[in-house]
């Protein structure tokens, strides 16, 4: 059985960066949900973060996890609890995705809206409204808490501002049965 720690957060919060750091530190493999979906679709994602077919993408994610990871592999998976559709509406990822994935623990990254906005502008050359990013981040956190309760798994809310990975390392060790 796969042992997954799901690391969530909105675009630009630093999921991939932090996941790679903690993955190297603990010697545990990591995957990006968007890259797994892109592999399944055989196409890359664009800088535009507005998703047309959220449900279809999540089905492809589950399929890609099954095809591209070992049966008993332990790994980090960075992804989202909510996404923006093509109308800039915040949409929750279906509960069925998390039920199928069955993560052992959840980490949700958050940061100041100004920092996130700056990273997105620099990385993707897209300006997001503060209000949209704030609602997006609040929705991400609240829905992650709901998924944690549904799955009865521990959750860690992690403020990336301080850059102290020790809490995340300790939490991950516990989630992976102390490695």
Provide an overview of this structure:
By secondary structure, the protein is an alpha/beta fold. It has one domain (3-175): 3-Layer(aba) Sandwich (Rossmann fold), CATH 3.40.50.300. It contains seven helices and eight strands. It has helices at residues 15-26, 33-41, 54-68, 95-101, 113-124, 130-151, 166-175; strands at residues 3-8, 29-32, 50-51, 74-79, 82-85, 90-92, 105-110, 155-159. The strands form two sheets. A five-stranded parallel beta sheet has the order 2-4-1-7-8, sandwiched between helices. A three-stranded mixed beta sheet has the order 3-5-6, covered by helices on one side. A hairpin with a 4-residue loop joins strand 5 (82-85) and strand 6. The relative contact order is 0.23. The model is unreliable at 44-50 (pLDDT under 50). It holds the Pfam family AAA_17. This is Adenylate kinase. InterPro entries: P-loop_NTPase (IPR027417).
């Amino acid at each position: 059985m796969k042992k997954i720690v799901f690391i969530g957060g909105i675009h630009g919060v630093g999921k991939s960066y932090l996941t790679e750091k903690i993955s190297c530190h603990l010697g545990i493999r990591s995957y990006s949900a968007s890259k797994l979906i892109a592999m399944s679709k055989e196409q890359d994602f664009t800088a535009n973060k507005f998703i047309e077919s959220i449900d279809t993408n999540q089905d492809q994610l589950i399929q890609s996890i099954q095809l591209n990871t070992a049966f008993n592999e332990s790994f980090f998976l960075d992804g989202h609890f909510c996404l923006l559709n093509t109308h800039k509406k915040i949409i929750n990822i279906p509960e069925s995705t998390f039920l199928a994935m069955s993560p052992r623990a959840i980490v949700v990254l958050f940061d100041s809206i100004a920092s996130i906005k700056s990273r997105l502008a620099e990385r993707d050359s897209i300006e997001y409204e503060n209000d949209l990013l704030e609602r997006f981040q609040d929705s991400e956190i609240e829905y992650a808490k709901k998924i944690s309760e549904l799955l009865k798994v521990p959750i860690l809310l992690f403020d990336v501002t301080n850059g102290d990975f020790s809490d995340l390392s300790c939490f991950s060790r516990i989630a992976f049965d102390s490695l």
